Amino acid sequence: MKKTALIAVIIALFTGLSFSQFKEIPSETRTKLKSNSGGLILGFINPKNFSISHSFNMSVMTGGNTSVSLASYTATMNYKILKNMNLSADVTMQYSPYASIGSTNPALNKDFQNSLNGINLSRVSLDYRPFKDMYISLNYYNLKGSYYGYDGYYFDRYNPYWLSR
C-alpha cells in the first residue's frame, strides 16, 4: 500500500511540474477550415445551438445476501434544431465495481456484475412546440440501469430551451 501511495505522489508531482507543448496550426489549414465550414460542423451543425451537461452518480444497494454498487456518468447533449424544436440525448457509461446476487458461485456473481457494465443510449427526445399552448414530445428510454424498471429521473427532465414560454 505504501508503494502504491508513493508512486501516486511521484506521478502527481511530475504531472504538476510538466509542461505541455502547443503546436501551431499551419495558416493554410486554418484558412481551409474557415472558408469551407462557415462556422458549421460537418457543414450543417451550428455549434452555438449545441449544449452538453454532465452528471456523475454513485450508488450502493444492499438487501439480504444481494449487494450492488454502481458508478455512472451521463452526458446530456441538446441541439436546438429550430427555434421551437429541440433534440436531446443522454449517453450513459456505467461500471459496477462490486455486485453479488447472493450465490456461492463466483462466476455467476461476476456475470451479474458484468451485465451492469457498459455504454448505452439511455434517452433520446425530440421536442416540438408548434404553438404557445401546444407541446409535442417523442421520447425513447432505455432503462437498462434501473433496477426496478422505472427511473423517475428521466420523467422530470430539465430542458433549457423551453424556459421562455
Rg (C-alpha, Å): 23 Å
Q: Indicate the mean pLDDT.
A: 76
So what's the overall shape? flat
Helix content: 10-25%
Distance between the termini: 57 Å
Number of helices: 3
Order of helices and strands: HHEEEHEE
Number of strands: 5
Question: Which range does the strand content fall in?
Answer: 35-45%
Defining traits:
5 strands, 165 residues, five-stranded antiparallel beta sheet, alpha+beta, 3 helices
Structural account:
- With 165 residues, the protein is α+β, with helices and mostly antiparallel strands.
- It has a domain at 48-162.
- The protein has helices spanning 2-17, 27-37, 106-116; strands spanning 50-63, 66-82, 85-100, 118-131, 134-141.
- The longest helix has 16 residues, at 2-17.
- The radius of gyration is 23 Å and the shape is flat.
- The N and C termini lie far apart (57 Å).
- The relative contact order is 0.11.
- The model is unreliable at 145-165 (pLDDT under 50).
Write the layout of secondary structure elements.
Layout: H1 2-17, H2 27-37, E1 50-63, E2 66-82, E3 85-100, H3 106-116, E4 118-131, E5 134-141
Antiparallel strand pairs: 1-2, 2-3, 3-4, 4-5
